[in-house]
Automatic annotation (TrEMBL):
Keywords: Arginine metabolism, Hydrolase, Manganese, Metal-binding. Belongs to the arginase family. It is an enzyme of class 3 (hydrolase). Its EC number is 3.5.3.1. This is Arginase. It comes from Sporosarcina gallistercoris. NCBIfam families: rocF_arginase. It comes from the Bacteria. It catalyses: L-arginine + H2O = urea + L-ornithine. Transmembrane segments: none annotated. Pfam families: Arginase. One of its GO terms (molecular function) is arginase activity. Its cofactor is Mn(2+).
Length: 302
């Protein structure tokens, strides 16, 4: 990463990818927690480009083909993809705030405009690699990785442009501890690199991040995206998430992971997702997100 970046923020107040209200307020909460001044204090130039449009109204969880709110998620992801594509073309560093994780379909689609061999770090308790055939919930926030790999409903797979946006060998999942049976199969079939909590506990975060960075470097990636679901951390630290899973990554391990990514100099875009202020405790989760953003973008203790 260059020293002073031109960072463009995009908010995605999307909650149609899952079933709990409130995650649409995530972008506001992260802004309120001071993301912009935090980045400016490190020396970056930050432009807040505002939010992607998401329709208001009752969430009735309409199902089509086993997917909930397919229209709303498709529309929001399409606008997000267009905006991310434009920002990368303009040499901006896209930093996207969510919103539920279905938005990653849009982020990755937009990034595919510039990057043909993008590396992706998926920091999450979940693998988010369900399709409508394997999903236990019909919630699209459990599907973005599959969709971006070209698997799942056509309307999602063909957002922004047709087909697959990223390669399975360029994906690293970190923090997984809740994986559905169909996801497990797909992970094995595609040979996706996963560092579950087992590897984090056994080898330590330093080793895991070194392995992840070495692995991605060996793939000759032309960019690196971080998709950070706040439920990757243990709910002790980030209670404001819709699908908390105990036994997660610690606050300290997460800061270390962000610092190691900063030191790698590889990162070209990032998103922080699943912050739900209604479920939160005095904006703790957004505060943690902003702290991690500080470490990711070069804040130092001394
Ligand atoms: N982005 C998330 N928090 N995803 C949670 C997904 C949970 C579950 N695997 C599902 O597909 O419904
Ligand atoms: Mn998750
Ligand atoms: Mn997720």
């Amino acid at each position: 990463m260059e020293k002073n970046l031109n960072i463009s923020l995009v908010g995605v107040p999307l909650d149609y990818g899952q079933s709990r209200r409130g995650v649409d307020m995530g972008p506001s909460a992260i802004r309120y927690a001071g993301a912009v001044p935090r980045l400016e204090a490190i020396g970056h130039h930050v432009t807040d480009t505002g939010d992607v449009a998401v329709p208001a109204g009752e969430r009735i969880g309409q199902e089509s083909d086993g997917l909930k709110n397919l229209d709303e998620v498709t529309d929001a992801c399409t606008e997000l993809a267009e905006r991310v594509a434009e920002l990368t073309k303009a040499g901006q560093f896209p930093l996207v705030f969510g919103g539920d994780h279905s938005m990653a379909i849009g982020t990755l689609a937009g990034l595919s405009e510039k990057y043909n061999n993008l590396g992706v770090i998926w920091y999450d308790a979940h693998a988010d690699i369900n399709t409508e055939k394997t999903s236990p919930s019909g919630n699209i926030h459990g599907m973005p990785l599959a969709v971006s790999l070209g698997m799942g409903h056509d309307r999602l797979v063909n957002i922004y442009k047709e087909g697959q946006k990223i390669k399975p060998e360029n994906v690293v999942i970190i923090g997984a501890r809740s994986v559905d049976p169909g996801e497990r199969e797909l992970i094995k079939e595609l040979g996706i690199k996963v560092f579950t909590m087992h590897e984090i506990d056994r080898d330590g975060m330093t080793s895991v991040m070194n392995q992840a960075i070495d692995y991605l470097t060996s793939k000759n990636i032309d960019g690196l995206h971080l998709s950070l679901d706040l439920d990757g951390l243990d709910p002790l630290y980030t209670p404001g998430v819709g699908t908390p899973v105990p036994g997660g990554i610690s606050y300290r391990e997460s800061h270390l992971a962000m610092e190691m990514l900063q030191d790698s100099g590889l990162l070209t875009s990032a998103e922080f997702v699943e912050v739900n202020p209604i479920l939160d405790d005095k904006n703790t989760t957004a505060d943690v997100a902003v702290g991690l953003i500080g470490s990711l973008f070069g804040e130092k203790l001394l």
